[in-house]
Design brief:
The protein has 491 residues and is an alpha/beta fold. The chain folds into 3 domains: 88 residues, Rossmann fold, CATH 3.40.50.720; 198 residues, Mur-like, catalytic domain (UDP-N-acetylmuramoyl-L-alanine:D-glutamate ligase), CATH 3.40.1190; 145 residues, Mur ligase, C-terminal domain (Protein-Tyrosine Phosphatase, Chain A, Alpha-Beta Complex). Helices cover 33% and strands 21% of the residues. It has a 10-stranded mixed β-sheet with strand order 8-7-9-6-10-11-12-13-14-15, with helices on both faces. A 6-stranded mixed β-sheet has the order 16-17-21-18-19-20, sandwiched between helices. The chain starts with 41 loop residues before the first strand and ends with a helix. The N terminus is likely disordered. It is found in: Cytoplasm.
Length: 491
């Protein structure tokens, strides 16, 4: 493989510019903070993210005046504006209206944000987004979906299944549910389904009735400090569930958590022979089909989304619906209607026989699952991964593991630079940490300049190939450049 020449000063390293004069401390949720009885007019700082925009949508539906700001425009912001939200692009103290009653912030926000500082000076209640969501949930029968991977898909499957069964749940998901076109909605039923965020411990805020744990793969150790502390948080989350805990029987971390639970009602799911809800006979050659054994009966389904991991996600969603008292056969049939969520193996276009997909995968386990799913549908084509490492701490911790799964599952890999998110740059930590760990250096190129990365990708692509961007940062923004480069190369 030809390695592209790199300029000394890349022009498209837009994700890792040093944050001058910023504190290296982001906002953490205060689990003891008091939620105001009346939220009034609500201002969201960082309103464009999937979680924040979903909560803002529900606030608008509940009759609140909603204002907000974010660093860039997006489809989420356009949708909120259409519903009546007033949103500014860029962070500035002037964005905070004089009549604001409550401020909602994302955990990715830096503490020197001017709107956040002004809210503190005014003495306004400042709620982490998880607290704002807790206020919306109050009094409902809550299904909380947690886990290092699979939360968004599992939440979407549960919501899709409930709607197919005639239920009318409220929900907040981490991605847009394709057939609904939204990541959140208010329903009239008693059920509320949320993707619960374990990254900063905020999933412990919720008064959960049914807890689903998809897996407990070590992650977010920058917050928890150790694997044991990470797993203990899941133990607390599960034991607090009022009715039921549904937990993976296959994942090593989930099994350790299960052994420590004191909850009286625990249901396991997975491929293990001793799983209460056992999934087997998984076929990935074409649409994913599988069977589920439960309470002495066997049920079968074919999904609309690819990947072996999604058969297992479906089994977890099935266990939740059955645990809620819903009909097993109808529950599985409803789950099978799920057509995916935004940024999960999402097709953006095909040029000259080369298809360009985007996926949110940002942990080695997720990358392996996404690429394995792609392998089942790419046919004779190759997989070209465009990987954007997410956060410096995760890149340092998992550089070797990322290299191993990318080399195993992708035919070619282009590594971009690190998306720092809430972290300041760390000297020596770049995308090269991943590319340098490939056993076969001819199958990887580290290209921090985005336009050069797009051009290089187009130069090696062939008819039938899948190009897949991977990461939960802003890597999706390179997709137009990839499509443009393919047009020039193959058009």
């Amino acid at each position: 493989m030809r390695r592209p020449a790199h300029p000394k000063q890349p022009t498209a390293r837009i994700s890792t510019a040093p944050r001058k004069k910023r504190r290296t401390v982001t906002i953490k949720p205060d689990l003891s903070a008091q939620i105001p009885a009346e939220l009034g007019a609500v201002h969201f700082i960082g309103i464009g993210g999937s979680g924040m925009s979903g909560i803002a949508r529900l606030m608008l539906g509940a009759g609140h005046r909603v204002t907000g700001s974010d660093v860039r425009d997006s489809d989420n912001i356009a949708a909120l504006r259409a519903l009546g939200a007033e949103i500014a692009i860029g962070h500035d103290a002037a964005n905070l209206p004089d009549d604001t009653d409550t401020v909602v912030v994302t955990g990715a926000l830096w503490q020197d944000n001017p709107e956040y500082r002004l809210a503190l000076e005014r003495g306004l209640p400042v709620l982490h987004r998880s607290l704002a969501l807790a206020a919306l949930i109050a009094g409902r029968r809550l299904v909380s979906v947690a886990g290092a991977h699979g939360k968004t898909t599992s939440t979407g499957m549960i919501v899709t299944g409930l709607l197919a069964l005639g239920e009318d749940p409220s929900f907040v998901n981490g991605g847009v549910i394709e057939e609904l076109g939204v990541s959140s909605a208010s329903g009239d039923g008693e059920l509320f389904v949320v993707e619960a965020d374990e990254s900063d411990g905020s999933f412990l805020l919720y008064d959960t009735s049914v807890a689903l744990i998809t897996n407990v793969d070590p992650d977010h150790l920058d917050h928890y400090g150790s694997r044991d502390a990470f797993e203990q948080a899941f133990v607390q989350f599960a034991d607090r569930a009022r009715e039921l805990v549904v937990v993976s029987s296959d994942d090593a971390g989930a099994k350790r958590v299960t052994e420590r639970l004191s909850h009286p009602r625990v249901v396991t799911f997975g491929e293990s022979a001793d799983a209460d809800v056992r999934v087997h006979s998984i076929e990935t050659d074409g649409p994913v089909s599988f069977a589920v054994d439960h309470a002495g009966r066997t049920f079968r389904a074919t999904l609309r989304v690819p990947g072996r991991h999604n058969a297992i996600n479906a089994a977890g969603a099935f266990a939740v619906l059955v645990g809620l008292g819903l009909d097993p056969e109808a529950s599985l049939a409803g789950i099978a209607r799920f057509a995916g969520t935004g940024r999960r193996f999402e097709l953006h276009g095909t040029v000259g026989g080369v298809s360009v997909y985007d996926d949110y995968a940002h942990h080695p386990t997720e990358v392996a699952a996404a690429l394995a799913a792609a392998r089942t549908v790419v046919g004779a084509g190759r997989i070209i991964a465009v990987h954007q490492p997410h956060t410096y701490s995760r890149t340092q911790t998992f550089a070797k593991e990322f290299a191993e799964v990318l080399e195993q599952y992708a035919d070619e890999t282009i590594v971009l630079d690190v998306y720092g998110a809430r972290e300041d740059p760390v000297p020596g930590v770049t995308g090269a940490l991943v590319s340098e760990r490939f056993a076969d250096p001819s199958r990887v190129a580290y290209v921090p300049d985005w336009q050069q990365a797009a051009d290089y990708t187009a130069s090696i692509a062939r008819d039938g190939d899948f190009v897949i961007t991977l990461g939960c940062g802003d890597v999706y923004r390179i997709v137009p450049q990839l499509l443009g480069s393919l047009e020039r190369e193959r058009g």
